[in-house]
Amino acid sequence: MNSILKLGYDLLSTPFATKVSDAWLMASFKRKTKRKLKDNEWLPKVTIVVPVYNVERYLALCLQSICAQNYQNLEVILVIDGSTDNSLAIARKFQSKLDLHILEQDNAGLSAARNAGVRAIEKTDYLMFLDSDDALAPQALHSMVNQVINTGSDFVVGDTTRMKGVTRLKRRDTRAVFAKGTISSTTLLQQPQVIQDVTAWNRLFDFKFYQSNQFVFPEGMFFEDMALMTKAYVRATKFDILAQTVYLWRVRTEGDKSITQQTNDEQKLADRITALRQMQGLIKAGVVLGKTNDANFEAFKDRIWNHDIELYKHVPGARQLFDGLMKY
């Protein structure tokens, strides 16, 4: 039975299935996009930073998903990070549909593009990151903004649905984070399982919190968000867990794989180990601040065992590197 299910899943995850899925999503987002928004609706300002590098195949869907949010007080800063394809031309077509500011820079990597986008913000209330091959789920912005307005939390982290072809599955590695439902005004000490979710793109930050902590993505390495999001958990007075899909994360079925799909690269393995060591150091520092305890170390070990080791189990010597992180 498992082999039959796998065969069915594989058929639904082909490049052709991806094209069918994207066409359906695009039509759905266009139907949901309102031509005119309510002028009398007061909403705090949200800024979305979108780094772009050679994603002409996916960018229009990404930007249409933002249009479909129907969020009036919205700014999008799109950073063209040395793209050599048609991404810039595609982005310009959306300038009449969105408050869209386009920055261009030589290719410097994902972290540098995100940091450049943040530096370009003149004034906003909330900040979000969106990768240009992914999409926002319908009502994501309204749901996250309503959540943090009601609680006054430093940020909210929402659930993610994994897109591969026409298949839709909740992220397996973060299911424990959202298993208890929506949790308001909590902390890393109270919810140690959130260490499973350290991606930058499925959360909405209070921009004052982000600025006051001088958060910057480390440049020149992969998995740049893992330690920074751990730092955000440690630094937060309180945050929210929203058990609702806010982000559609693409698993590519054609062309170059995304960074998270590339598990045969020695540099990416080395950078993941570095990021995990940094996370471990932040958890240790949190003990002194009263922000973490033994339960957080156990949750950290669980994520390594259930997720990180699993990703690299086919790589010779990787297990020994991960085993060294299991001690504290």
Automatic annotation (TrEMBL):
Residues 47-210 form the Glycosyltransferase 2-like domain. Signal peptide: none annotated. SUPFAM superfamilies: Nucleotide-diphospho-sugar transferases. GO terms for molecular function: glycosyltransferase activity. It holds the Pfam family Glycos_transf_2. Keywords: Glycosyltransferase, Transferase. This is Unannotated protein. The lineage of its organism: unclassified sequences, metagenomes, ecological metagenomes.
